[in-house]
């Protein structure tokens, strides 16, 4: 028993000595493997009565010539969000858009270059307000239907599917759909947004009853012609009632 006790004490002393040696002046980061970190920015918009996303065509290896979500490696001196905005500007020319962090993807084999973890951001916005153009890391840039995408680089197809499922889930408890609408809109236009995202038809009567019961909308008093039908009321989002949706 005494020998065992002495052995434990020696091990504890050695451990304490090793820990005391690890300080700011002698810490060696090279002792640990360091995966690379990237950011990808998934941008969606309603275009041509379809939910579309912005893609870039890769200029270099790996996956040269394939379409991908805009993104790239972060610099040591920048935050994740700063890196996301920089990459978006460099690859597409897009600036000053609101980004929301979606998820982190880190499958060990997702990138043939090295061990790469990516933090994905996404945004819903009006594409008409953007002027996109291919820049440093891309040969082309364009909008594609999320329901008819070309083959994508890396694990980007899985990322898109995850984002779409998350977006559909958020329709139930957030006001995310209003980011795809103008300031004033009709109930028909709002239902159209939900149907495009959910990728299915909704019952008009039930949809309107549910939406109007939340008091999330304000009647502007104005009206708008929709085809040959009688003028439709124009509504706007009521931020004070957001928690009721």
UniProtKB/TrEMBL annotation:
<dbReference type="GO" id="GO:0016787">
    <property type="term" value="F:hydrolase activity"/>
</dbReference>
<dbReference type="InterPro" id="IPR000086">
    <property type="entry name" value="NUDIX_hydrolase_dom"/>
</dbReference>
<dbReference type="InterPro" id="IPR020476">
    <property type="entry name" value="Nudix_hydrolase"/>
</dbReference>
<dbReference type="Pfam" id="PF00293">
    <property type="entry name" value="NUDIX"/>
</dbReference>
<feature type="domain" description="Nudix hydrolase">
    <location>
        <begin position="32"/>
        <end position="167"/>
    </location>
</feature>
<dbReference type="InterPro" id="IPR054105">
    <property type="entry name" value="WHD_NrtR"/>
</dbReference>
<dbReference type="InterPro" id="IPR015797">
    <property type="entry name" value="NUDIX_hydrolase-like_dom_sf"/>
</dbReference>
<comment type="similarity">
    <text>Belongs to the Nudix hydrolase family.</text>
</comment>
<dbReference type="InterPro" id="IPR020084">
    <property type="entry name" value="NUDIX_hydrolase_CS"/>
</dbReference>
<feature type="compositionally biased region" description="Basic and acidic residues">
    <location>
        <begin position="22"/>
        <end position="31"/>
    </location>
</feature>
<feature type="region of interest" description="Disordered">
    <location>
        <begin position="1"/>
        <end position="31"/>
    </location>
</feature>
<dbReference type="InterPro" id="IPR036390">
    <property type="entry name" value="WH_DNA-bd_sf"/>
</dbReference>
<protein>
    <submittedName>
        <fullName>NUDIX hydrolase</fullName>
    </submittedName>
</protein>
<keyword id="KW-0378">Hydrolase</keyword>
<dbReference type="Pfam" id="PF21906">
    <property type="entry name" value="WHD_NrtR"/>
</dbReference>
<dbReference type="InterPro" id="IPR036388">
    <property type="entry name" value="WH-like_DNA-bd_sf"/>
</dbReference>
